[in-house]
Amino acid sequence: MPENAPLLELRNIGKRFGAVHALRGIDLQIISGEVLALLGDNGAGKSTLVKIIAGAHAPSSGEMFLAGSKVSLFDPRHAHDLGIETIYQDLAVAENLDVASNIFLGRERKSRMLGFLPILARREMRREAASALEHLAIELPLRQVVGELSGGQRQAVAIARAAYWQARLVIMDEPTAAIGVGEHEAILKLIQNLARSGVAVILVTHTMPDVWQVATRIVVLTRGEKALEGKTEELTEERVVRAMLVGRESDA
Amino acid sequence: MPENAPLLELRNIGKRFGAVHALRGIDLQIISGEVLALLGDNGAGKSTLVKIIAGAHAPSSGEMFLAGSKVSLFDPRHAHDLGIETIYQDLAVAENLDVASNIFLGRERKSRMLGFLPILARREMRREAASALEHLAIELPLRQVVGELSGGQRQAVAIARAAYWQARLVIMDEPTAAIGVGEHEAILKLIQNLARSGVAVILVTHTMPDVWQVATRIVVLTRGEKALEGKTEELTEERVVRAMLVGRESDA
Amino acid sequence: MMPNELRHHPILQAIVDQGVLIAFVLLVVFLAFVAPHFVSTANAFSILIDAAPLVLLALCELVVMLVAGIDLAVGAIAGFTGAIAATMMLQGFPWPIATLLALLAAMLAGTLQGVIINYLRVTDFITTLAGLSIFSSLTLIITDGEPMNINANGFNALGEGHLLGVPTQIWIAAFIVLVVALWLGLTASGMHLYAIGGNRVAAYRAGIRVRRLRSFAYAFSGLSAGIAGVILAAQLATADPNAGRGQELPAIAAVVIGGVSLFGGRGSVWGAVLGALILSTILDGLVLLNISPFFTELVEGVVILLAVMMGHLRKRSSN
Amino acid sequence: MMPNELRHHPILQAIVDQGVLIAFVLLVVFLAFVAPHFVSTANAFSILIDAAPLVLLALCELVVMLVAGIDLAVGAIAGFTGAIAATMMLQGFPWPIATLLALLAAMLAGTLQGVIINYLRVTDFITTLAGLSIFSSLTLIITDGEPMNINANGFNALGEGHLLGVPTQIWIAAFIVLVVALWLGLTASGMHLYAIGGNRVAAYRAGIRVRRLRSFAYAFSGLSAGIAGVILAAQLATADPNAGRGQELPAIAAVVIGGVSLFGGRGSVWGAVLGALILSTILDGLVLLNISPFFTELVEGVVILLAVMMGHLRKRSSN
Amino acid sequence: APQYTFGLLLSAMTPYFATIKSGAESEAKKLGVQLLVENGNNDSATQSNQVDTLIARKVNLLLINPTDAKALIPAVEKANAAHIPVVFIDRKADGGHAIAYFASDNTQAGAQACQFLANHLHGKGNLFMLLGISGASATNERSAGCDSVLQHYPNIHVVARQSGHFSRRGGLTVMRDVLIAHPNLDAVYAENGQMAIGAVRAAEAAGRLKNLTIAMIGSGSAGETQLVKEGKIALSVAQQPAVMGALGVEAGYNYLNTGTVFVPVPLHMDYAPGQRP
Ligand SMILES: Nc1ncnc2c1ncn2[C@@H]1O[C@H](COP(=O)(O)OP(=O)(O)OP(=O)(O)O)[C@@H](O)[C@H]1O
Ligand SMILES: Nc1ncnc2c1ncn2[C@@H]1O[C@H](COP(=O)(O)OP(=O)(O)OP(=O)(O)O)[C@@H](O)[C@H]1O
Ligand SMILES: [Mg+2]
Ligand SMILES: [Mg+2]
What we know:
C: two-stranded antiparallel sheet, 15 helices, 4 strands, E: 5-stranded parallel sheet, binds adenosine-5'-triphosphate, AAA+_ATPase (chains A, B), Sugar ABC transporter ATP-binding protein (chains A, B)
């Protein structure tokens, strides 16, 4: 593994849904410890790109390299193994399971029954979940089934889930969309803490102030294509917003 | 109908979900032409209250008066008839129908086949939908099924739906959560225009700047109870945020 | 493979989506080559006559499955309708009146199911399974377990007669198909069925009377099952105490083969018709080829599986 | 009506949710009063013996319905398994080996269905409907349409024998119930079944091997159906060419009565067992009460409907 | 006289078995016997469970029409062990002890029907065998009877063997297709009356009835008899289900009072006009 390779590299990624061309020729590098803001108008392709990086969608074309080595046959399971955690915009939680089960879903803690049968360590998971939520300044009814939670509470579950695991890359697709004022601040702090400890973060958001508060780099997508890329300190909000809209105008 | 009665009045509204007490003793008046910001932390009960006003949930206790007369046996159909339009937080669009069908769902335009059979005027609805979206500065692939749209695009569909109909009260539960920067501005403008033309607007949001930009009055919910109420110009952001959190602390 | 504009044309899209159509065509071509006398007017009518009641039952399932329901009682209601019509004719009612009253009973039966499901909130599966038991039983009771002869020629003509050289029952089924196609395709309530199946909560919030419309879907299902029952009885000039039994799975199979989803909101009349045609063509082919009865089900199962897989492959490759 | 802490206790909650339990108790009490000889060890065993294979088939449906599937082939696979075991014993294999191989075949049959559904993406309904046809047909072919005698006493003891005074088949069913209860309640893969049924996309994104686990659910279904088939064959000392036919709807009915959802993600082992017990108690009561065969289905349908409605009323009043 | 309770276990509730039921019921009424009638839905497991339940119910006598000759052996043995006498109706189980057996011989019926057809065709022609439900014992035995005769007639070609599932509609739909596939069909052998009626309708609709000789194994029901009278069906080898049911009850009643009797039920041959050999 080359020492100075970016954590993640996308080359010429494209994605079609039937006739819809959601992404075209996306090149992207993500470096450990940076916070990359992925911006763009509605329908620009941000979530599609996020899902590809998370392994939830297969790209129609292009290649991905993680820490210098090509990834293929990629799915969310591999993404987890490689240290990629994702908060999806369309949360996708198991509504019929409780908070702790959702946080640990797919990576449950186990204990041994009769010394050899692996069974769920429910109590331990609930305890861990509670402390993880506390860290994030989130208060949730732990035993309630997620389907009975409010919109913001569900989002908090998804955030806690992604934050809990030791990751190399955390992808957050509009994590603060439905989130209360206090929790909003906690999430921004979380992002900064993650970056400080060397984790790469991809943040998708429509809240411009957040971008300038936490992001180190900005990529703007317009209609599935990369329209602008640069360091946060080198870009102004005006220029970014214009890129989102101008891209659109020049295309239309 | 008493001339000076509030458009909508809630008296002592409560709502339980099994053991969960989501709302308690809510009194609320909404006056034509005002923009009421309904604020509160995640899980405070905002969406529950919104659903009760929209007829989507029946309250467990309390009474509702619309323009001075008591409403009973209330469902979304009645709400529409009474001029209440709602953008729900959990959008709930028919994913298998296209944009125009969703905007007109339940109130389709019809024409007569053979002079007497009422059939759907699909083309007319599509045309109307396109112009409604244009008004809102929203660009959408009209023929695509809503399930294939991006998160923000779906939200735009819900907004267009609520904005299209001549309403007396428009309720918006976090309408800008997933919405792009340009559309965000358009929605704020829409709210102001609605209020100016005498429509009452209830806005639920976690974005404080929006509140001070458009709201005339603020109500804060904390753990299902009304914690603060007042004119926007008389309240500071600090005080509002504290009400959300303090309520919580004093309860805990 | 196809220019984008073309691909988005609704009719073309429907055909591409219906990869099963291609499977059907292949099936027909195959049988035309190997099965003696498969290509003949008599055989075409034979397939269509067998398909007619199945198509009607498939329409029942289509409509209730669009709203994420299921109707296991369609066969039982069909048998029940035949028995009622026969009894009334025995009691001296003129056949058109007996038939209309029997169809009314069928619609009431369906409505009753719809009301239990949507207002008393028993699940669709349980209610219609109970309906299956209850209406089968009522048929046995009405007929006293014996086939009842029907002597009214007008009635029997519904099953045996011809119009412009085409068997009456094919006309009847075609007419109902057309009505349902117009209903689903052109009217608001038709679209509301799709909306309910797509997202019931959204439909409710949009002001659609979900419970009423779902009940209506079951009422229609009862009626269409009743028409199937009339055809079945007329065909044999008999109300058979066991008529319609076991027809629920084939009816559901027909629509599922035709692309209707058990989870609601997806499917078309053409799919339902196609599914029914595939099933009756397979059965026809099995007899023409004189496949041993021990093997008929084996071949049937394999062919259905292949047809659906083929439909699926088509769809995937078009993605 | 109940203090909140109590109401949230998982076991109590489960009982309250299972309003159907109360319906079952009422049914038993009612029959105890009106049906002659209902309260007797012989009759209790008669009900349980009757329920044993149904419970096993209900477990099949429970597991596949948790992942929003359905298995229409369970009865056919049961019959198929009996036929294979009988054939092998006829060919001189010792009965334990014949039984194990037959169960292996059953599991393979289920796995095959699972693979077709999850990897070739044919819908659950169509695949298992084809399975129903295919395995029914294979049973006819293997047995050549004639019932096959089974003379191995050890094998037949699985259906006729007793252990500690309790019929063997009740032990077998109880053991499998326990295994499934532990699987679903205590293990990760058990919980993953619920997750898949609750939200398949979420489960996939959480890294659950959705297709593999769903295939496994069908493999289990095949195995459990196979065990039911062994019991049925042992009970009759015969591999019947039509054994298990028509058992798919009762099996699904049992779990749905017990609160399992056809749409996935909801249901418990206890519900499935309860549903099977309700069905076999009703059938037993019908015989004891000498309900005329024309009326049996009528009564059965009505009682099922009442039981489920009662369960539902309980739930609503507890809200 | 003592009040007896008998259980009558029928394998299914098709018209044929409904006739057994009504024959048995009217006899039971005459004798003051309470009769419990069960429908096994063609399922051996169901029927043997019904036997269990009736044993628990402590009936005095069981009249069993087994769904299957072998599968019901354990159930009959259980009845024997509980000292409840058993009478077989229409079919028997291959094991266990019964005090009486009232049946017509299915194998013989099949043989007689096909012998008639063979004679009628002068040993030459195309025959369609319209079979019952696959795997049902009635189907197996009737087919075996027919086949045993046909093997002596190499020039009779069985051009199709298809199942009409013992139902009228099954007979109709299958016959329609067979007529299409075989324009030179001469004769039809139908394994029950319901299917034969369906086949007659198909042949009539296709205008082929005149050229067809149809023989069936009937149950003597009105609809069947009518078609025989009209000459549309050449031969009905009619079983007498009502007689079987009545005799079964009578014999059981006598047995409980006195001792056992075996009464063979004669097959009733019903010829169309001019067909009597
Ligand atoms: N269907 C339900 N069953 C049980 N509890 C529910 C249900 N719906 C909501 N609740 C509970 O009611 C409370 C209020 O929920 P609500 O959705 O009104 O919150 P909210 O103020 O809109 O929060 P957010 O800002 O996150 O949208 C929460 O504690 C939630 O868990
Ligand atoms: N499953 C799908 N089928 C067809 N088209 C799709 C599908 N998913 C996404 N698209 C299309 O791809 C484009 C990009 O969608 P995407 O969700 O990536 O947008 P986004 O940038 O995340 O927007 P938002 O800010 O609204 O979340 C949109 O035009 C959308 O309609
Ligand atoms: Mg997005
Ligand atoms: Mg909310």
